[in-house]
Write a structure and sequence with these properties.
Among the domains are: 3-124 and 201-268, Rossmann fold, CATH 3.40.50.1820; 277-388 and 450-532, 3-Layer(aba) Sandwich (Rossmann fold), CATH 3.40.50.1820. Helix content is 55%, strand content 11%. It has 30 helices and 14 strands. The protein has a 7-stranded mixed sheet with strand order 1-3-2-4-5-6-7, sandwiched between helices. It has a 7-stranded mixed sheet with strand order 8-10-9-11-12-13-14, sandwiched between helices. The chain is globular, with a radius of gyration of 30 Å.
């Protein structure tokens, strides 16, 4: 029997297979087993089917020594095991450390099997041209050192090194407990092959851009193996990848063991079970009201209050809007929106209740999606100005007047703000999430929906209402389409887009045309001007721009202070450094002493995380005390520390510039930065006054240019939006002419 046939026959030991509901598959890290997921599973709780097994070569799974333990081999055995377990529906795959590298390869090989991919502290080593622009040289040297270390570990058994002799000799008992292994020689060979063929050869550059499912990579901020500072480089490979930073003193590479509750929380952030109910009232037939792209659920409240006399009305904020969750790890397809709405409706009325769906704009499209997806739950659907594009048209074709052109230009402005790397450190996560949710809803729910297929699947009665001054909705196409279907009715009414929020009576008449009492109440009801004018697109864009401008102002102020204070007293620098060391050390000690309450509290956690943190904190306090007691000697120490860092960074940049054929940023910039670092280090050592001057001017220049560039970027972005409006209007005039 060939090795390939042998591999196809292998199955993994299933550590956990429990619960009912959507499937979550969990892959553990190196030198461990599926039992690591116990606390995470317990924290998430019921509502899911959890599957965690021992990876090939670990725990109680087979440990053949005639295979490479490559990511492809792992993926094949995982797939065969899942098929045997009857997992046919799409599932969420979670991979930690080594399991993350395997999960990445599985997702690339079997993309149709996953609904989401969640990576936790998965090691990645990128080619030089793909590295993050900041600290490029240092990261390159770090990757060389890391791979050298893994290769040394992998070859330790073959070379019968001192490390291997210790591991297989007097240290074997302790390592057997730590590695969940009962045979160190065999385990060492399995570990070595995994390091060499799965971790070191992980195919991030090839696999990540091709993934179609939502992907999240969560990284502990103190992880010394997976550097969160380089994670933005992954987003250049896959722009919609979400990077999450797990904070805390215990957030190192052992985060799954140290903080399993936090890991469970991060996994569940994208599992939306309920949307925000903006308003609910009344009794009678259940009715769901859904808002459009440029409003929130609150805009429906006047209509909802009128209809509540005869209906049990729930106004729902769509996924990513208003008070509803806005997970960055979703694509916001029509299916995502429909699933979230139906899950919320089930939570409100149960699984068997039949509903009336009413929506405006995107909400109208989602209402039609609900009617198409769960016809047995739909009484009827009323769609005001649905965001449906006539087949063969583009978004630009809708820019027929200034208002529609401004809407399209605003969307493009928001896209630039979320894509620009310079905005990442400045923008608030919540503002970014809102913009991303809206942008993806347009791209994937509006532009990515097959309109003909959607309308063809709707069996319930549908009334499409389009105001006569609505220039965005394809009224002609929808009227023709309604004429071809017995269950469709097309209604043209006076008014403009957003009719339900502006003309309460017209909206109520379209929803319940035979209810004279409702129409009378509607005529006595006024719209909510605050809810109608609250444009989430503009608000989110302003939030990101505001954060960028504030960061720019702070940078310019800092640069001005550095230039104004000349010369900077050396003692002042030393005391400032000592204060920073004191605060950081005290925080580390406090965190180490209280870590048991923040983590799973195991002995291994204390030895690997709490004890080193405590010792570093004590050492830091000792250093700070010395700096306060002897500022003159402390100034020299501070200078040496800066010189060492500058030399290391400069040498690394020069090394990369001279040794690497393709680099992430212009080679001259690497050379210039490298020379500046080396010259600064030498100047600090041999001419302290000149060295401090170079550091001061370099820092001031960096802060000043950074702040100015932020202002320039915001200004250029606004000018670009104005030009785009003019281009769209000119295009519309040419088409009409």
């Amino acid at each position: 029997m060939s090795a390939a046939e042998d591999l196809n026959e292998l199955r993994l030991h299933v550590r956990f297979d429990e619960g009912h509901g959507p499937v979550i598959v969990m892959l553990h890290g190196i030198n461990s087993d599926g039992g690591d997921w116990r606390t995470v599973i317990d924290t998430i709780g019921p509502g899911y089917r959890f599957i965690a097994f021992d990876l090939l070569g670990f725990g109680q799974s087979p440990k053949p020594l005639d295979i490479d333990y490559s990511a492809d081999e792992h993926a094949l055995v995982i797939e065969n095991t899942l098929r045997d377990l009857g997992v046919d529906d799409q599932f969420l795959l979670v991979g930690y450390s080594l399991g993350g590298c395997i999960a990445l390869r599985y997702a690339s090989t079997y993309p149709a099997r996953l609904r989401r991919l969640f990576l936790l502290d998965a090691p990645f080593y990128l080619p030089p041209e793909a590295l993050e622009l900041s600290s490029t040289g240092l990261r390159y040297v770090y990757e060389i050192a890391s791979r050298w270390l893994w290769n040394r570990l992998a070859s330790a058994k073959q070379k019968d090194s001192v490390l291997y002799k210790f591991a297989s000799g007097i240290g074997s008992k302790a390592l057997e407990d730590a590695f969940h292994a009962d045979d160190i020689p065999t385990h060492w060979e399995v570990m070595s092959k995994n390091l060499e063929n799965t971790v070191n050869k992980a195919t991030w550059v090839d696999d990540l851009p091709n993934l179609t499912m939502p992907v999240v990579h969560a990284i502990g901020v103190r992880d010394a193996i997976v550097k969160v500072s380089q994670a933005p480089a992954l987003q250049r490979l896959k722009p919609d990848l979400e990077i999450r930073r797990i904070g805390g003193l215990a957030a190192d590479h052992m985060v799954l063991w140290n903080m399993p509750e936090r890991v469970a929380e991060e996994i569940m952030r994208d599992e939306v079970r309920m949307l925000n109910i903006a308003w609910r009232g009344g009794s009678g037939t259940p009715m769901v009201l859904l808002h459009g792209l440029r409003n929130q659920g609150a805009a429906w409240r006047p209509v909802a209050e009128v209809l509540s006399a005869t209906h049990d009305v729930a106004v729902i904020d769509l996924l990513g809007f208003g008070g509803s969750p806005a997970p960055l790890g979703l694509h916001y397809t029509l299916a995502d929106h429909v699933a979230a709405v139906m899950g919320t409706a089930t939570g409100l009325w149960g699984e068997d209740a039949r509903l009336r769906f009413v929506g405006e704009g995107l909400g109208a499209e989602v209402a039609l999606g609900c009617a198409a997806t769960v016809p047995e739950r739909c009484i009827d659907a009323i769609a005001f100005s649905p965001t449906l594009l006539e087949p063969g048209t583009s978004l630009e074709d809708l820019a027929t007047d200034e208002r529609s052109a401004q809407a399209i230009a605003l969307r493009e402005t928001a896209q630039r703000l979320t894509d620009a790397e310079r905005t990442k450190p400045s923008q608030a996560e919540q503002a970014e999430a809102r913009l991303v949710a809206m942008l993806r809803s347009v791209d994937n729910a509006v532009l990515g929906t097959d309109v003909e297929a959607l309308l063809g699947q709707v069996e319930a009665p549908v009334r499409i209402v389009v105001p006569q001054d609505d220039t965005l909705t394809p009224a002609g196409y929808l009227e023709r389409r309604a004429g071809e279907s017995e269950n469709f009715e097309f209604v043209s009414v006076p008014g403009e887009r957003g009719l339900p929020y502006q003309d309460i009576a017209a909206a109520v008449f379209a929803i319940v045309p035979g209810d004279a009492g409702a129409l009378e109440r509607a005529r006595a009801t006024s719209p909510d001007p605050d809810a109608v004018s609250d444009d989430p697109w503009a608000r989110a864009a302003r939030g990101v721009e505001g954060a960028l401008l504030r960061a720019g102002v702070l940078n310019l102020i800092a640069a001005a202070i550095i230039v104004a204070i000349h010369p900077v007293p050396g003692v002042l620098l030393t005391i400032g450094f000592a204060i920073w060391v004191t605060i950081a050390s005290a925080s580390a000690i406090f965190g180490a002493l209280t870590m048991k309450g923040q983590t799973s509290g195991t002995r291994f956690t204390f030895v690997t995380t709490a004890l080193p943190t405590l010792l570093l904190g004590v050492a830091g306090l000792a250093l700070a005390a010395w700096l306060f007691a002897d500022p003159v000697s402390g100034r020299r120490f501070f200078g040496v520390a800066v010189a060492v860092y500058a030399m290391a960074r400069g040498a690394a940049d020069l090394f990369m510039a001279l040794r690497v054929e393709e680099v992430a940023k212009p080679r001259w910039l690497l050379v210039a930065g490298g020379l500046l670092g080396v010259v600064t280090a030498l100047a600090i050592v041999f001419g302290p006054n000149h060295g401090r001057g170079i550091v001061r001017l370099t820092l001031a220049a960096y802060l000043g240019l950074s702040g100015a560039s932020m202002f320039a970027y915001v200004l250029a972005n606004r000018r670009s939006a104005g030009r785009r409006v003019r281009e769209l209007l000119s295009r519309a005039r040419e088409q009409r002419g």
